[in-house]
Design brief:
InterPro entries: Beta-lactam/transpept-like
Shape: elongated
Low-confidence stretches: 1-12
Structural class: alpha+beta
Strand content: 15-25%
Radius of gyration: 34 Å
Protein name: SpoIID/LytB domain-containing protein
Number of strands: 28
Distance between the termini: 82 Å
Helix content: 25-40%
Number of helices: 27
Organism: Archangium lansingense
Strand order of the largest sheet: 6-5-9-8-7
Amino acid sequence: MGWAAVTVAMLAATPVFLTRGDVTPEAELRAEAEAAWKALEARYVAEAGSAPSRAPVNISLRKGEGMLPSRNGQGRPGVVELRQGLPGVLDERLRVTLRHELAHQFLWWACPASAEDRLFHEAFALAVSGELAEWREAPYQSLTSASAELAHNPDVDTPRARRALARVLNEDSGFPKALTRRLRQCQDEARWAVPLSVDELAGVAMQAMASATVVLSRHSGEVLFSEGDIRTAMPYGSTLKPFVVAGSAVSPPVLSPRAEVPEWMCGERLPGKVDARTALVRSCNGYFLDWEGQGSAPRAFGSWGAVLTAVGLSGVPLDMADAIGLRSTLRLSPWGLAQAYRLLAEARPELMEVLAGSAARGTLSELPASKAYAGVAAKTGTVRDAESRPRLGWIVAVDEDLVAVVARPGKMPRAFADEVPEVLAKVRKKRSGLEAARVQVLGLVSPGAIEARCQGAGFSLEQGTPRAIPEDFTKLEPLVAKGSVVCLGSPWRVRFPEVPAGRDYAGIFTGSPPPPYRPPAGVPTSPNALKARRGSDFLFRTTRLQYTAGVVAAEDATLKGEVRVALAQVVAHNERHADSRHPGRPVCDTTHCQAFLGTVRVRPEEERALAAPPLRWREWLLFSQGGQEPWQETRPRGQVESLLGPGVTGVRFSDGRVHYLLTKREGGAVFDAAESQPCELLRSALKLPACPRTARFEDREVSFEGRGQGHGEGLDVEAAKVSGLDAGRILERAYAR
């Protein structure tokens, strides 16, 4: 947008400037302030794209009192204080000071989120006040020494610090690109998560490069392994090219390579026509630059820009060169990159299939380690200096369970390609049970009553497109209506009226209404049992290890040692044998299957259980609290007869069943018929601690007596506690036939 057009398009947003006669002449001072403000507004619109919509506050221009000798002006929101040398004279020094202080006033109005970012404020004020030309005439100062000076004086409140800042700003021939990105962030009203840094102003020449490795679970999102400073933001090279493709609203084009253009040098035997698939695995810069030249490429990663910003991308790319890392002006940490790829793998599995070709025919091909990348989607990136020497290499690797990001300073990705399969194997060796576990959750709760909150960055996925989720608690049901919901950097917190404090769920939610459930004819079933047997509208995916730990804690958090290992093995086994509970559906989280109340801390016993060989049985394995603690319960006789039949007599219990006699009539004959049904149906409907041992019928009540808790079949947990056996012998005693 030209300056003339900008001036015409600007909103009338000039504040009222108030004077009180102590800086003169007043009319000329106000006129100077109004002209400076209009110039500030024009610059802001040119860089940020539009003007702020709200009206500015009035600003008082007054003589400064008690200012330090090194200062010619100072201010606070709504007040500018000036040092005037001669009364009635507005010399150039005072005019520059006025423009500088009004720049701060402008930012307090247009960009309140940046109020605490002193470096950003001072950089903007220097860039727009006309002071830079003066500083260019100062003696030469190296970029390194300027950076060191600012590191020692981050408030930029001394002449030496301002000189250093001017030196960094003068690296750009025009308006500093870093400030342009930040002004656009202001206009977008984005969170000011990361303050402006000297590295951001200076670019890659000043950027620290650090070695780092991080591995995440695709399912639970937990950090399974980290080494180095995984939170250090660094130039990311070509690693974000898949997000450009993912963010495109149209099909990426097929382009002809241009051999004379260096950016098209992306491997030997490049085909005559290059599509996005080839451009990704070959990492062809020329393809993406020419795509932008055609006018159809997404700006700022399209819908994926919000994702990258949420995980720490330092700014919005101005163009494709920024987006694909040709210019090292933006930064992202290894942790943030891993989080973004976790969401990308969930949303766009077809892109992971494309990137799985990187080791076969792309940037990691024809290496000794290439075969070790079988089944692994990989993307490389290289950050280079002005002489094309590698300053930082990246490899992102995604397999069915893990996301790994490896960064190595001073190396090309091919030079450390062998490290990535090794770190994936190392993580799997260290911790078993990292594969996916799926469970139907919260089936006993009304779907509309369930709320979820992501304390990290939450996104719903609609046909592969991410949509940001509100930061506060939100109804879960509409979030999963069109796809999965993923919380990056944190577990979900889920609450409902019965659990107002909420529970943690580290994993991914999807919506999946179960088929209608019809109980067997003649079998009495309580309302809660009907809900449990129906299943849930919500599916939750986490790791088998996290799921197993959650079930063991829900079933008996006090367990220790061998019995905890044994129960954990049964729990993990049953997650793979849920068909007898819910045909064609995952296991549920109620006692109909095995209780699961969210994510808990994994104990060493669960890790031992998941590292053990699979159990030899091929069916659902029952377990109960068990024990020998005696109990007695009374229930209304009418309730019992509604379950077993009117006039029931001769009730006894054996082999996990209830046996009884019912009086029947056929024709003119009357006789007693023997009946039997699983005791668990009676126990569940009457909410008894366990299957009774005796039942005594009275006129209006039935008294039950028994021992222990649960249905009494399979693994008796209480008995196992006192057995002194190891986990293997506990399981053999419980299930051997």
